[in-house]
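Side project, low priority. Logging it here so it doesn't get lost.
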Amino acid sequence: MSCILGIESSCDETAAAVVDGRLRVRSSVVASQYELHAEYGGVVPEIASRAHVERILPVVRKALDEAGVTIDQIDAVAAGVRPGLIGSLLVGSSLAKAVAFALHRPFHAIDHVAAHLFAGLLRGGSDDDHFAPTVPRPALGLVVSGGHTSLFRIEGACSATLLGRTIDDAVGEAFDKAAVMLGLPHPGGPNLERCAAGGNPDALKFARPQLPNPLDFSLSGLKTKLLYEVRGVPQGRGAQSTFMRSSQDLSESRRADLAASFQKAAVAQVVDRLERAAERESPSALLVGGGVVANTHLRGELAAFCSRRRIQLVVPARAHCVDNAAMIAGYAALRRAEGDVGDDLSMPAEPVSLLARGTKPKRVH
């Protein structure tokens, strides 16, 4: 059985994994950098890239050891090359290219957003040996992460058409900013969810945006309403404007109510766009991925949507929602199953997802 080494370093997670051709995860190792960025309230690119340099080789060695394979038993190497922090991307993609070059193995340049889309197809290492990896179709694909909220029509592992995307913040980014407004610590998204668990989700009503493309998303209005609810409408204009109060003036119960209401409104917008897309596309399945898919409320609403529509929900395990290398290697395995032979080593790292922009990547030969 072929084995693919996946490497991921797009932001603040240094990760490596080994996945076989049947999408069984033989190993998955993730080194988080939360402790390095916590005092800044967000990821500092220079700190992130330096940490990747320090951690990447130990992480890869551990992934190979846990998978029970040696480096020369790897049949292909895959790395996330877009989107992300360019300094971070260069660490993982450069190592992957070096390994592929040294071993004379195929190199697969992976779009991080595409890898999230298909992460729900990954399987445990002890699953059936006779499973053949296939992509359900016709299908909708949804990525909900810190940097992307995008909706796709899925035609196969090598083909997805963008239907809608956020015109401002992604849901994960909006959760992080809402957490800051509410005075919650980093990482914002998980702490917002924990705070929301004790709140009333109907305490504050949010309007649902109506956009020219009914499948697009917008979170800016939700953020503004939450900001004014927490701090009051600013007095004055421009640089002279001031707020009446701060998050420190919130009671714990009010903080929880606002967190729950914001979470409900953001998730409701996602489900609304899925309902509209399902009417148009008549899918048989929904593939979802991204860090925000670890959110319990979102997972519940996605399950309810698929139950109403009688369609299959393909959702990753929580460990494969956040940035990881198993999804990178798994997506490479799906591409190989559809005949993809890999990319040239001159394929560059890029800060923007071409898939999420609705454009096709250019192969460099």
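Brief comment: The chain has two domains: 3-122+319-337, 139-315.
Revisit when time allows.
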